[in-house]
């Protein structure tokens, strides 16, 4: 089973390049260009089959999620993190916005809270961005945090992309470490959850980093919750509950507050799977089968409903509550 799961993860890495932006060439080596053209043919010109491939990968991830028995978790988490570094952020347009928002500061010395990406039309990076019309929508700590991988990228796109991927891998490893300290039996639930892997790691969203600091606040010091809120304000609902860490209903309340935060984001925008990274991540702190079954059901439905229609048709469909 572990071999099949490993091959499935490798398949996910390969499949991720089927959604590479048509205006983007990562490497000019002939072998990679041939591979990229092959994957583009799958993702853009054979969409029904592409959607089937994604569903098969998704089903295998969920099967492995339930049936895999592992003893050396540090090795598994490390391998998953390494594979994530090799993948393309195929379902996260936000990822490139994270990169460019930091670039506005590190390259142009400007404030992304006031300037949009479209104000830099000569920059070649905006060719493969989808949200050039908005100013910076996140908390100040996320901007500060992203300046590090941006600066270490030295203006090089591929290096900057790899640095940002490293940031999310570090958040994933950090979440696994803290969850293992708080509730060892919940580590598998988090580390192999397909929504966590796809939305937080292989196709990263900042909610994973926000989740890490929230869990760190529970494990170490409540002040880390300030950093979580400083990334994205959705975890503000968790902060008051930290005063009741010793209460038997603490974890249940955290999960409920996490779901409330996700619903609030949906009401203010639309149904996006990464909004549920926080409540599903917090579910790993509970041994309740009911919470776990709910999280797995939500993970499966969200990934199917949000991405399969897009992969099949090439059109994003919005879902509102």
Please provide a brief summary of the model.
The chain is mostly helical.
Describe this structure as you would to a colleague.
α5 crosses α6 (140-152). The protein has helices at residues 2-16, 30-45, 47-67, 73-86, 94-106, 140-152, 157-182, 187-191, 194-202, 207-219, 224-231, 250-268, 277-283, 289-313. With 321 residues, the protein is an all-alpha fold. The longest helix has 26 residues, at 157-182. The protein contains 14 helices and no strands. It has one domain (2-313).
Q: How would the blueprint of this fold be written?
A:
Layout: H1 2-16, H2 30-45, H3 47-67, H4 73-86, H5 94-106, H6 140-152, H7 157-182, H8 187-191, H9 194-202, H10 207-219, H11 224-231, H12 250-268, H13 277-283, H14 289-313
Helix pairs in contact: 1-3, 2-3, 3-14, 4-7, 5-6, 6-7, 6-11, 7-10, 10-11, 10-13, 12-13
Termini separation comes to 38 Å
Number of helices: 14
Largest sheet: none
Order of helices and strands: HHHHHHHHHHHHHH
Structural class: mainly alpha
What is the helix fraction of residues, given as a range? Answer: 55-70%
Poorly predicted ranges (pLDDT <50, ≥5 residues)?
none
Question: Globular, elongated, flat, extended or rod-shaped: what is the shape?
Answer: globular
* Domains (count): 1
Radius of gyration based on Cα positions: 19 Å
> Beta-sheet strand percentage?
under 5%
Q: Mean pLDDT across all residues, rounded?
A: 93
Count of individual beta strands = 0
């Amino acid at each position: 089973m572990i071999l099949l799961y490993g091959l499935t993860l490798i398949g996910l890495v390969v499949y991720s390049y089927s959604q590479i932006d048509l205006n983007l060439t990562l490497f000019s080596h002939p072998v990679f260009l041939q591979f990229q053209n092959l994957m583009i043919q799958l993702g853009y010109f054979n969409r029904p089959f592409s959607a089937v491939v994604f569903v098969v990968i998704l089903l295998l991830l969920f099967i492995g999620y339930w049936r895999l028995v592992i003893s050396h978790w540090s090795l598994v988490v490390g391998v998953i993190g390494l594979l994530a570094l090799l993948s393309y952020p195929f379902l996260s347009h936000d990822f490139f916005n994270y990169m460019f928002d930091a670039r506005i500061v590190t390259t142009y010395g400007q404030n992304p809270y006031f300037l949009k990406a479209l104000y830099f039309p000569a920059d070649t990076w905006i060719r493969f961005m989808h949200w050039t019309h908005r100013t910076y929508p996140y908390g100040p700590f996320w901007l500060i945090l992203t300046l590090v991988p941006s600066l270490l990228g030295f203006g090089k796109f591929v290096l900057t992309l790899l640095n940002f991927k490293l940031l999310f891998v570090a958040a994933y490893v950090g979440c696994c470490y803290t969850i293992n300290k708080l509730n060892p039996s919940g580590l598998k639930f988090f580390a192999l959850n397909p929504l966590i892997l796809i939305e937080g790691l292989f196709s990263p969203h900042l909610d994973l980093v926000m989740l890490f600091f929230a869990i760190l606040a529970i494990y170490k010091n409540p002040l880390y919750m300030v950093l979580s809120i400083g990334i994205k304000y959705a975890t503000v609902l968790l902060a008051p509950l930290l005063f009741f860490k010793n209460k038997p209903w603490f974890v249940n309340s955290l999960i409920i507050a996490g779901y409330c935060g996700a619903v609030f984001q949906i009401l203010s925008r639309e149904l996006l799977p990464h909004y549920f990274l926080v409540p599903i991540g917090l579910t790993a702190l509970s041994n309740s089968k009911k919470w776990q079954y709910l999280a797995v059901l939500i993970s499966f439905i969200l990934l199917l409903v949000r991405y399969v229609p897009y992969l099949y048709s090439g059109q994003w469909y919005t879902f509102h509550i």
